Amino acid sequence: MAASLNMDEVRGAFPALKTDQIFLDNAGGSQTLGTVAEAITDWLHTSNVQLGATYAVGKAATDKYKAGYAAAAKYVNAPVDEVVKQKVLGPSTTQLFRNLSYSLNFNPGDELVVSAIDHEANIAPWVDLAARQQLTLKWWRPDSTVNPKLTAEGVGPLLSDRTRLVAFTHASNILGTIHDVRGISKLVHAVVPQAIVVVDAVAYAPHRAVDVQALGCDVYAFSWYKVYGPHLSMLWAGRRAQAAMRSLGHFFNPSASLADKLGLGSASYELVPSLPAVVEYMKGKEEAIVAHEAKLQGLLLDYLKSRRGVVVHGETSSDPMLRVATVSFTVEGFDSQSFVEQVEKDSNLGFRWGSFYSNRLVEDFLGLGKTGVVRVGMVHYNTEEEIQILIAAFDKFLCPRE
Q1: Are residues 245 and 386 in the same domain?
Q2: Cβ count within 10 A of residue 290
Q3: Which of 3, 133, 359, 371 is placed for a possible disulfide with 336 were both Cys, Cβ 3.0 to 4.6 Å?
Q4: Cβ(176)–Cβ(356) below 8 Å
Q5: What is the pLDDT of residues 371-399, one digit of tens each?
Q6: Are residues 125 and 226 in the same domain?
């Protein structure tokens, strides 16, 4: 049995949790560890110089920056590879995916397979790439609109010997559903060995340990500001993906580093050295986090499923093997905006309504209105008491079980 979290220690690690606000919008961005804020302050106070200098402070600054990159690699279990540096940090996952798309060159008529239920960050770059290079865009649409899932069986018929890239999400930022990255990657590479598998892990990385070697994908990206860290993102790319890239960097810097190819100097110097604090905090907590979040989502899902007029969109099971603790729903008689605003009016609850940059999923695939879904984004520092407070607030507006 996994060890349980010490909630006093967990909540004590986040300064924002000392306030009365109940943070249930974590799928949009988590609260930041105090140790992360301290590392950023320390950099600005003691190391705020350009990298690569040979004087003492310059050397110390460079070492701290390198330590941030090393911690990022450790977090995803990136392979140790001194020939091809496989990670890049930048301002957002959206930006890094866009940079990646400009580094790839395919031939007219080559094919891109893109999930229709993803965040736009992992859709728009490939739509634009297809238009720029006269590629064929194939939409990967799950069969079900009730509980849509991306599966190896679903993508198989879309693959051909012209497939060059397959893009999808590890976990939906709306549905919470976890997809089988390993199984999908294995199938894609078996059918089309040269195809690049690109995975958006923004909604997955805050909830689960990451191992890119075990997953078998070629590109994996997420945002640290949703993983208790600074407003920074990370993209990892393996050999197959890097072999297909051209460098976007300066001509006089032909380094094999992915940061030189895609980064364009966009990783903030003061933020990168704070990443070791995130990795240190998460160490040894992975199983306990999964168990705790399973309890939280179980409480909320059981409640929502018991109420008339409520539709939970996506995975309705609280099984942590099937979903992360991001729960979205709609309520009969309310648009999502008015429901959230009514509940928030007399409470200190913070949660959201909208499409959350997954407009193709919410508006086109699920057929919902412009105000989208009500989304509750839970993470491990939330408590069962907070979910009970949320349920009590919902009780004022939702119909009881028939």
Answers
A1: no
A2: 18
A3: 371
A4: no
A5: 999 999 999 999 999 999 999 999 999 87
A6: yes
> Order of strands across the sheet with 196-200?
87-90, 233-237, 219-223, 196-200, 163-169, 111-115, 136-140
CA 255 – CA 374 distance, rounded (Å): 46
Q: Which range of residues forms the domain containing residue 357?
A: 7-24+285-396
Side-by-side strand order, sheet with 373-377: 310-312, 326-331, 373-377, 352-354
Closest by Cα among 70, 78, 68 to 237: 78
Rg (CA), the chain: 21
Shared-domain flag, residues 203 and 299 = no
Task: Kindly tell me the sign of the dihedral angle through the C-alpha atoms of 352, 349, 207, 66.
Answer: positive
User: Do 348 and 223 share a structural domain?
Assistant: no
Query: Does the pLDDT value for residue 197 go beyond 50?
Result: yes
Rounded CA-CA distance 76/72 in Å is 7
Identity of the amino acid at 97:
F
- Strand ranges for 101-213 from DSSP E: 111-115, 136-140, 163-169, 196-200
314 with 216, same domain: the answer is no
Q: What is the DSSP secondary structure assignment for residue 361, as one 8-state letter?
A: I
What is the percentage of the chain residues whose pLDDT exceeds 90? 91
Please classify residue 58 by burial: count the beta carbons closer than 10 Å to its beta carbon, then call 0-12 exposed, 13-18 middle and 19+ buried. Answer: middle
Site of tokens 């995130």: 278
Please state, in angstroms and rounded to a whole number, the distance separating the CA atoms of residues 169 and 273: 28
pLDDT at 251: 85
Give strand ranges (E) for 180-337. 196-200, 219-223, 233-237, 310-312, 326-331
Query: Which pLDDT belongs to residue 82?
Result: 47
Convert 180-204 to b/e letters by CB count within 10 Å (16 or more is b): ebeebbbbbbeebeebbbbbbbbbb
